[in-house]
Amino acid sequence: MPSIEELYALEILDSRGRPTVQATCTLGSGASGTASVPSGASTGHAEARELRDGDRRRYGGLGCRHAVANVNGAIRSALTGRKIADQAELDLCLCELDGTPDKGRLGANAILVVSLAFARAVSQERATPLFAYFASLLGTTPRLPQLTVNLFSGGKHAGGQVSIQDILVVPCSAQSVDQALAMVYAVYQAAAAISLEKYGMRALTADEGGLAPPFLDVDAMLYDAVAAIERAGLRPGADVALAVDVASSHFYVDGNYLLDHARLASHGMIARILTWLDRYPIVSIEDGLAEEDWGAWPDLNTVLQGRALTLGDDFLCTNPGRIRRAVELRAANALLLKVNQVGTLTEAADACRLARAAGWAVVVSARSGETEDNWLADLATGWAGDFIKVGSITQSERLAKYNRLLEIEARYDLPFAGGQYEHR
Predict the structure, then answer these.
(1) Which residue segment(s) compose the domain that 113 sits in?
(2) Annotated catalytic, 198?
């Protein structure tokens, strides 16, 4: 049974230059683990709450010194010298110490960073890969995930030139992470060339590394994505499919969706999504409706059945209560799993367990504000994610995760989740 000898946190910067939290946990055995936590731009109302300082004179109020002080103060005092039976006991202790439903007192960023640093320390103490430790929390057999990789961005990830957030490529014919990344590279370079030729746009990138030329509308975005696949010498739908992160909550106003200069009711938004599926090789629709448009989500899931995943991000917030409700209503069939949406590894594992029990797909996802920490690659592998969603292939905080997947693939004989979601 490990005991915590020391906890120490500090404020660092994420990929957007905004503060976040890093922590180191040292066990009585001398084993030590360091982790850092991400932060989202597209956030759901039901997410666990990060603690920010609110001092507008420093980082526009986004500082994390209070969260850091909570790790170095209240959390360290409660845990130092204490024997911890397992991850679940640690995470329960953190939640009880906070005492709020949204982790707003100590901060979800303070709580999660300790949860992750402890996991890494125990993994080191056991001399086991981090993905194997994560697998032990769920009882899963590790498997490398298929990739979904940002190609074009709009919405909150870019300049809002189109309402939707991202078009991603899914290298569905790839048989390995290595092959998948090579295919994505070819498509990305083709897309950069198209952006220059059509829009005079150099390869400047959005928050998660996607290209962001001034598309006229969503159809132009999707059309150019297909053109990039073809220019790369690959077959749209057979070799490379598309996933769409609609992020509808961000253009849902007074009960209507303001998309491409049109005002659409829920049924109109569903109809628009169906036109995209008819025209383009799409295998996943993420947050196709707003997070509180519960009445329409079952209709969306019904019409997407057999064609594309109905993937919930802001809609579900990796929140077990919202997942249970969505299962009961048959409102989705895939979970976008973001650990910092719920705040501890144990709660994220509960969310994953619920999704799997319902027969859903699970997409393990990074955030728009990331660090060079690569624990997400191990989590997606250990929890046998169907997909991993990290961002594009052009920024170090994204590449750290892809490179860790390559390392796992090279060092361990694990199956790969590719080939099961090709476009039909």
Answers:
(1) 4-127
(2) no
